[in-house]
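G., the chain you wanted modeled:
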Amino acid sequence: MDNNYIFYKLRKIYQWDEEKIGSFFQSVQYVVSPLDIFAWMKQEQYEGFKVMPDEALAALLNGFIADKRGLQNGKIPEHEQKLTNNIILRKLKIALNFKDEDIVDTLKLVDIRIGKPELSAFFRDPKHSHYRICGDQFLRNFIRGLQQKESKPSAS
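Predicted structure as tokens:
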């Protein structure tokens, strides 16, 4: 899936400003210029647009995890050079502290029905016989579900 799209959607859903985005990168010691961040925020048709590399999105998601949950054992995680939708889904699950039920409920908001066994196949080792590749449409729907979930007023 398109890294810029994921970055754009998460930025909108969680209302990240440039300072917050910069803090995500700093927290995982990923060096990025503000100009690159602005270029990744632009839409493809605009001058100055740049494609967000996998490693940069991995670092951003690692920073999101560190912000929400802290660093595991105080160690900065490695930033994957190559991302898959399965890795992105896993990182979002960790950052949001979601259980399988939370993902299932989030997908129900956009009329996607999935069982826990089907869902767990996305989080298996790729060498496992029941591993399943997370498609673009599935990840897109999950992000749309997050958008729905975050836009609803919380019941107090």
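The chain has a mean pLDDT of 94.

Shout if anything looks off.
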